[in-house]
Amino acid sequence: MDAQQAESVTKDAPAEGVVHAVLATKQPPPESNHGIKTRRWIIFCFWAIVGLLGLPIWYATTTVPRAALPLESMDAWASGQTCKLEFPVHVALAAGHLDFATTTELAQQVQQGLDRQNKSPIYRLRVITSRHGTADQSDAQYIDPSTSSAVSSQAAANVNLVLDPSYSHPVAKVQPFDPTLSIFHGSLSSSQPSGVSDLAGFITTELLKLFAEEQVTLDYLLTGQTTHHESTTDIDSSSIIEGYRKRSNRAFKYASTYHLTFSLFTGAAAPSAWDIKAALDDYLGPFLASFSSVSKFSVDTQVQLYASLSSSLHGPQYDETSEQWTLLRSDLSAFINAAEWPLSPSIGVGPTINFVAYVPSPKQAPMLIEESGGTSWLIPQWGGVQILNPSAGQENNTVLTKHDLEPVVRIFAEQLESLIGLPQSPPSLPLRLSSLTRERAASLILSASSTLGALSRLTLKLTSIAIPHNVADSVQKTIHHLETACSHIHDGHYDSALEHARIAEAHAEQAFFEPSMVGQVYFPDEHKVAVYVPLLGPMAVPLVMAALKEIKKFKQARAKTA
């Protein structure tokens, strides 16, 4: 057995050597230094393209643009620290039958009484005197008796003293279509100094009554609190605030332009026409003209015959006792059926206020509201509706004349006052309009400031949200117009303040509801990972592995040479 094993060993030895020789001949030749450098340069170029070109392009195309916003200023406006709103309301005191010294003394006593009784932190009545002794609005030369300096702002109201010996006690009368409070009084004797004091006390009380609703409303709007007068005037602040809330719920949001649509719907073939233009020009035109300092109005009209009532109505029901058709109060809100009555859509950027005059068919006339027996009602933030029951013998009239439409248009005018939020007092229309101007200016400033604060909080909370440069521009414009509006309010220029406050509110809303900014909220970072990993993963693995392998070989080569 030993001989055989030795023989097999001697036979296998040459074969084993041959295998090693063959394997040695199949090994690749050693790589030249030029080849190694070329491979390394290729790998380096790939990484250079990725680092110098790919990553910057990726960063530029995926980075969310965020323009710089003045966050501190925005938060300051939202918290009310930038502008302390104060409303100086100038009241011009004029007495042509009194000398300038007596008028000045009277004005000073009235001012002292107002300062003593009025505790509002934001609302101040300022008594000024006319240089020429008249309270005409065209007379812009007014003097502040407390400082003897000229007042540049126009007087919001006039107090006109009228001497009438028939009055033993002063009597106040408010002019309905003029911003004037007329005070009728007897003669003031120089031997009775208390006469001026008594008259000053009477004027003070009447002025506090005249502006009570506006003062309580502004205090509640800006501070959330109400102040009381230290006077004998019976001013119920709670009822004024409740009235303001109801008025706000009925009224449209403020707009610089409103579109009025007057529609005539008839249940039969008549009437088929109405002289609405002449009626609007005579009975509504003066009111719209006086309101032009607050808002503008555009008007259109339409007529539809055979207009059927909505199928959702439970009525009208025929009452045999009164021989009338009645509508339930619950039916009034569903009275307008847009599918059956093609009301004009909103035209332009302003809201549309609808006024509908409905003439029922002779088969359903007369038609009344069952609970109240009335024929007109108001739909908050929409418009007004009025049922026109034809009089006896006028059922077949094809045209509604201007005389027929006078009561209709006057009711529409009253409904319009409610829909635009006009205060109910004082009884003077110009004073109510000026009060609405100040109220609207204050509410718009608050709205724009609140929007800036909301935008600031949104920017800090959502760091991935886009902030385009036009948003930053809108914010800057908002702050500029807010500062201008605040300055005009302090100076008593309320028409200009309202205009700048309206522009500020529009820019603030435009910045907050920027479409490109809002759309980015719904694209979080997780979506980016889900998109880029399947695309870049297969490309990154060869580059990373080649770089690691080359680094390993470089370290081994350095170790051998060391």
UniProtKB/TrEMBL annotation:
Enumerate the subcellular locations listed in this protein's record, separating them with semicolons.
Endoplasmic reticulum membrane
Q: Which domain of life, per UniProt?
A: Eukaryota
Q: Does the keyword Glycoprotein apply?
A: yes
**What's a single GO BP term from this record?**
attachment of GPI anchor to protein
The membrane-topology field of this record reads: Multi-pass membrane protein
Q: Which InterPro entries match?
A: PtdIno-glycan_biosynth_class_S
| Pfam families in the cross-refs | PIG-S
In the record, the note on similarity to other proteins reads: Belongs to the PIGS family.
What name does this protein carry?
A: GPI transamidase component PIG-S
Q: Which biological pathway?
A: Glycolipid biosynthesis; glycosylphosphatidylinositol-anchor biosynthesis
Write out the GO cellular component annotations: GPI-anchor transamidase complex
UniProt main location, coarse? endoplasmic reticulum
Write out the entry's keywords from A to Z. Answer: Endoplasmic reticulum, Glycoprotein, GPI-anchor biosynthesis, Membrane, Transmembrane, Transmembrane helix
Q: Where are the transmembrane segments?
A: 41-60, 529-548
Phosphoprotein: present as a keyword of the record? no
